[in-house]
């Protein structure tokens, strides 16, 4: 499964035309964006975004214009590997509506501890930096989508 990178300022995407890396600022997600080099329109992130640090995570959930679905997982976790393709389906189906992020709880263990993620996979929905919903366990894409919608309605 392919994932995108992020940093404290935005999501890094590659232009499909010239292959230039472009940063989509979190506060502009969901808006039309063009490549800085060739001006080709860039698609909304339709694959999960890998979050490599607590600082990147904090910037993402605070700064994102879009609601953020976060999948807390670990490489050794069988159910996490089973849900990964389902998370990818959700990211593709809701590009420009939601941002889907993945946090490896082994690599970013300080964040998992701070957010008290005690079982994986755990999914959380963030809106404007706050947790809108949280659920543990592997589930199919349709159930994940229903969880996100419910969390955003509450």
Spell out the blueprint of helices and strands.
Blueprint: E1 4-6, E2 10-14, E3 21-25, E4 33-34, E5 41-42, E6 49-51, H1 54-63, E7 68-73, H2 78-93, E8 99-104, H3 109-114, E9 122-127, E10 130-136, H4 141-153
Parallel strand pairs: 1-6, 6-8, 7-8
Antiparallel strand pairs: 1-2, 2-3, 4-5, 7-9, 9-10
Helix pairs in contact: 2-4
Tally of alpha and pi helices: 4
Element order: H for helix, E for strand: EEEEEEHEHEHEEH
> Whole-Å distance between the termini?
31 Å
Annotated CATH topology: Glutaredoxin
Q: How many β-strand runs?
A: 10
The assigned structural class equals alpha/beta
DSSP strand content: 25-35%
User: Would you tell me the overall average pLDDT?
Assistant: 95
Number of domains: 1
Q: Could you give the order of strands across the largest sheet?
A: 3-2-1-6-8-7-9-10
Rg to the nearest angstrom?
15 Å
- Into which percent range does the helicity of residues fall? 25-40%
Largest sheet: 8 strands, mixed
- In the CATH scheme, the class would be Alpha Beta
CATH H-level homologous superfamily name: Glutaredoxin
Shape descriptor: globular
Poorly predicted regions: none
